Amino acid sequence: MTADDFGASYLQQRLSGEFALVDHIGVRVESADDTRLVLYAPLAGNANDKGTAFGGSLFSVSVLAGWAWLTRHLARESCAADVVIQESRMQYLIPVRGDFRAQLCLPAAEEVARFRRMLRRAARGRIGLRVEIRDGDDVATRFDGLYTAAMRPG
Q1: How far apart are CA 75 and CA 15, in angstroms?
Q2: What is the Cα–Cα distance from 66 to 17, expressed in whole angstroms?
Q3: Residue 14 belongs to what H/E stretch?
């Protein structure tokens, strides 16, 4: 398998197959490679009573972006592990007034290496991931999540 085998279509299939919410709110993988992971969601279907993006949708798409990045990373490493969110913090800085994109901020190489070492040593690993959603050029939300991966038995 090549890196291209784990691109946007791979992640779209995984997300849609594993989370009913993805298709319901229109989440689409816009970009997924070694340098960038971006999920797109339309405002329609994600709007609140004020006509801006619903906080729950912004949170959900952010959680999914972190899950997608780590799931892709593990698949590329041929590592059979399950990923879950363990802790999170979301800052809502300004309203999102249109369709939005959740972009993963790539973790430092040392953080990824530490995660891999933990996973190899203890069959479990944790890594902190940041996701931002922008409204134009401004950061609208900042999500920090701690994800856990556990090796599947067998």
Answers
A1: 14
A2: 17
A3: helix 8-18
Residue with tokens 């939300």, as numbered in its chain: 141
- The model's pLDDT over 74-86, given as tens digits with 9 standing for 90+, comes to 999 999 999 999 9
Domain membership of residue 107 as a residue range:
3-151
| Residue-wise DSSP of 41-91 | E-STTTB-TTSSB-HHHHHHHHHHHHHHHHHHHHHHTT--EEEEEEEEEEE
Instruction: Name which of 154, 149, 141, 4 is nearest 60 in CA terms.
Output: 141
For the stretch 67-125, pLDDT in tens is 999 999 999 999 999 999 999 999 999 999 999 999 999 999 999 999 999 999 999 99
User: How many structural domains is the chain composed of?
Assistant: 1
The domain spanning residue 18 has which CATH number?
A: 3.10.129.10
